[in-house]
Amino acid sequence: MIEFRILGPVEAWRGGASLNLTGAKVHTVLAALLLGRSRFVADEHLVSMLWGDSPPSTPNAQIYNYASRIRKYMKEDVALSRRDSGYILGLGESTLDYFIYEDLVVRAKSALQKGRTEEASVSLGRALDLWRGNPLGNVSEHLSSAECPSINEMHQTTTELWVQTELALGRHRQALPRITDLVSKHPLREGLRVDLMTALHRCDRQADALAVFHEARTILGNELGIDPGPALIAAYQRVLDNTTESPNDPAAQINRSNRIQWAPIGIEPIDIDGKSTDVLPPDIADFTGRQTEVDRLTSQLLAERTRESEWRPRRILITGSPGSGKTALAVHVAHQLSESFPDGVLFTKASDTGHPMSVTERLTKLLAALGEADIPPNASVLQLQRQYRHACSGRSLLIFIDDVPDDDHLQAVLPTVPTAHVVVTSRRHLSTINSELTLILGQLPRNQAISLVSTVAGPNRIDPSDPAISELIDQCDRNPLALRAAALRLASRPSWSVRFLVDRLSDPRGRLDELTIGEHSVRHTLESALLDIPSELHAPLLADVGAESLFTADDLNSTLRKRSDKPIETILERLVDLHVLWAHGTDDYGRITYRTPQLMRIAAQNIALSAV
Length: 612
Prior knowledge:
Number of helices: 26
Helix content: 40-55%
Distance between the termini: 59 Å
Strand content: 5-15%
Mean pLDDT: 80
């Protein structure tokens, strides 16, 4: 494991020993990749950070050489990979001091919001102790000018927050040297002068406190041509009146500060140019089943951080068959955990118009939900990503990104800061998220399926011992969307028995239309999933074998050999990855067995008939 450091000169340490990285260019490339937060960093960006507007004749070759040197030093501790026209640096178990710093600040803010001022002081102190001088002290001026202003501003804000915390705890004598130093470095920051006046007055140095005010009035008038602001004037009056507050209630004093705001984001719509951003959809009142998945998702999102994992954002993927309830599960858990993330819960749905949402649209909506009113109308994806990353920095967020089409789309909208946890739903397995953090939703267990139908259909409508209910569940493939649609049909038709509905669903040609009520359209959901994949992959779903029984690739070879040049095994595994075909196990000969879901087979048949 390597400990990377950028809060001072860029350094890398392994086992207590510094790695001998040499040269400003190598440090620049390493820092730019680290600040990419395990995301794609384009050659174009590296060129700009290394040479600005005056690159050499062979910039890419030189970048390749710097990357090779970094890879040689890092060995197996990190994964530096070349992708298209750029690089991705995956930290693995390694750490970066800046990410740890951000996480500590978020912990402190959360502690203050809950009135745990002493705990906040400890976290803020640990965060400030990570600084070793000027950040990025040995990189190019281009990277320094691009990144240091925001990093230094965060440091300054954190220091001011620590000062207020110490004053609220009555530790004005301990804080006084640091406040004095801060005022000398930042003479125009009136908030710091308020803190200095408060500390001096509590140390029985009234004259010195008044002198701080008069000095501020002179500097502000000479430098900016303005008078002191209301906060500074109020502090001056308190010193004159000898009424400086005592820290009897530190949490209340902290929360009264005008410089600390605790407003949640993403809970209420924010109007941007007349359009409301996406907010958390309402929970499903009769959400039923999936308790194992709910518990696992909740425990992953709320698990205590360890030293090895505290810098890393939690990214969780929920995937599974169309209609398996991925979005419903995500929304249900989001409502349960909303109070655990003090800076808010955000949710972006798949689409407002029925068409897939582009990366630009998704980033724009996320920025609006984060309260970013100044969003350039024609900004590039790279500009939006940068603004989004900074908007998330230092905030404790839970972000749900619904129906992500592929890894490239996900990479573009991941905040990648350790304080923002992300839950993604997708019809596909996404390599961006580790398998141990992936929830795969399959068929509902039979008892949960019966419970879902009973709950939605209404009281006294379902007899669990009735053979018809078992048939209904099988006709619906134990698919939550289909089960809910069937139950809603029963709820809207009090005169129908379960047997009557089963008889109506017995004809496969009309089953999908029967399983449609309101927004619960099984046909639309399944056919949309199939239309999103190449038509050549539909053939196994239409083969004569597999309607009700298990089959292997060998069973399809003779039937499908003329329809596709690809190996049948490759096609079947693609379909399994897309969750439109189920891998069941292996037969006596060790061959993988598959089964086609009834409803998916019917949807494929409908598409084939409409194409004739």
